[in-house]
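User: Here's a protein and a ligand (zinc ion). What would the complex look like?
Assistant: Let me lay out the input and then the predicted complex.
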Amino acid sequence: MWRFFVILKPESKRGTTLHNRTRFLGRTLAAAGTVAALGLALAVPASADTPSTVEQDVAQLTQDVNDLYAGLPASALKNVDPLIESPIPQTGRQSRAAQGPIPGCTEGSLLTYANNLASKLTPLENEAMGVLSGLSSLYTQGVATDKTPQVFGTDGQYTPRATATIAKLRGFWDIESWNVQLVAWKGTDLGSQAKMAQTFSLGLAPARVQAAAALATKVLYEVPALQGGRNPLLTLNAFSAPADSLGGKRVALGDGLLDVVNTLGFDDVSVESVVGHEYGHQVDFAHDNYPRNESSEMGPDAYGGYFVAHAKGDAWDARAQQEATYLDASIGDCFHSHGTPDQRKAAGAWGEKQATSQGNPNRIVPSATMIANFQKEYPKLMPPAAAQG
Ligand SMILES: [Zn+2]
């Protein structure tokens, strides 16, 4: 039956094969002894006939996801803060790197590693990666909920640490915390047509939702580089979202980020440092603190450092504290975006020192005080060259 649909498509461009196939059809119909079959076949909608190419599928999916983002409420992505500039330009997400690179700055090792992974993709793979990464981040932000058990890491290996960390953070900082969700950002969610339909429903015309969801899962498996959702580039990030954004207050932790941080040797501090940083954005959100400079990223580095070093936080020893500052440095960039490696390292170390040098190790500085203290310190943490750059 499949051949019937192919050759009867009126706008078929397969002119060279049409003749032979028509002859084939003619014989088949004659054998079937019915003209009714022809009418039946002609009634099949055009979309059900010619198999599309991978290129066509990716192009259509890009259109669908762009339209989805365009259909979101205006405040959906406002102040939603990713941990790093994604090495793959995510469909629907804006880059903050507005200026050229800072002279003399070397980007962090995690960014170098991620950019190297991305550079090996073909243009088609790159587009598919960006569009599906944008789609999965929107699922994580707008559909996923921690009311269902969250699984962190590709094999759930980080779930206990993530669960313990968010519980500790909720008790640590004096902000409204019960409704800050911690959700897993998983590329494998792209394989669920039901989850993708929920995601497209956030902004795409209802009549297009099911086809778009089916196409997303189709592309996930027809581009082998995507590894069925397990390529770390799909989820190589984490983000924090404020109350009035789509999905409300939440921290999302990407499986791909945890994979790559592990590869780079920071596994034993990854979950606590990253969730501690992202929760630091919640501290800023709670106080309406939205600085328009690198302190918007360095502040959460500092609050996270304070948390992991503090007796009532993770109470890490000097060795682990140092490792955490190197992880901070590894995600530094050179684009006046999220802070340079040196700046981020300095901010994390400053936060740790606030914990280890205070008279009463069990006292937790009120979050408003911590913000004010950091804003006072921040100009000193800017290396002179970078401050002028
Ligand atoms: Zn951040």
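Summary: The CA atoms of residues 342 and 369 lie 24 Å apart.
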